[in-house]
């Protein structure tokens, strides 16, 4: 069964006829490092549909974080364009702040403020947007429920496990109803069992919140389990090697990983990764 397709085929467009929400076009990134130029990304083209879940995989150093940081408005591309809902997120090396109002970011480290309670951490983006205390409390309670932290509103980050801290970070990113959620190895530091649980929960959060997700991971299994499409980058410079649709039914369970279809998709991706 051949399921992987070349980058420039129809698979670089969203699956299922959904409308485009994020468009990456001809993106290049060259870092000026002390040891010379590092060509991190070359001619990246990708169209991501509304509500789609995209996993970004590839060897260490292939440019996954660079691409995510460009999408997140943290790093300008050297050339090319990125648009969110048709609006350019970079204009001549300058960030277009308006385009980022509906973005949520989650990184490997939860980055919670230790002196704030879970509820205050979750509601911080709302406070910064001028939302009143009562509405913030209500939203934090709702989000604690959604991410599986009910009753922990008044706990402090030091009282939470690593998985619980990541749930709080996800809740914080969801607090202002982002339409786009960018996640850089959010579960990379968690043990295998907690990671499985977080993957199941992220799947249901994605289904409920309806946000478009771009998720960077080193784990092919995790990438396939979560994604509608898996984007594989190859290094030096980072290019899209393949875009693989994952036509497995949702909701997916841990049983899904034992299916022949799942294992075949993983096998093909591992083979491509080995080929470099
Ligand atoms: N600030 C920087 N200055 C110079 N080179 C950089 C910088 N950041 C990243 N690079 C280089 O760009 C390339 C891509 O890095 P990036 O962190 O995007 O890869 P990655 O796929 O996310 O790696 P990993 O899987 O190890 O996190 C690498 O060769 C890296 O050394």
UniProtKB/TrEMBL annotation:
Alphabetical list of SMART domains matching this protein: AAA (SM00382)
Occurrences of domain ABC transporter (ranges): 22-260
Alphabetical list of Pfam families matching this protein: ABC_tran (PF00005)
Name of the protein in its database record: NitT/TauT family transport system ATP-binding protein
Upper classification of the organism: Bacteria, Bacillati, Actinomycetota, Actinomycetes, Geodermatophilales
GO molecular function: ATP binding; ATP hydrolysis activity
Record keywords, A-Z: ATP-binding, Nucleotide-binding, Transport
InterPro entries: AAA+_ATPase (IPR003593), ABC_transporter-like_ATP-bd (IPR003439), ABC_transporter-like_CS (IPR017871), ABC_transporter_ATP-bind (IPR050166), P-loop_NTPase (IPR027417)
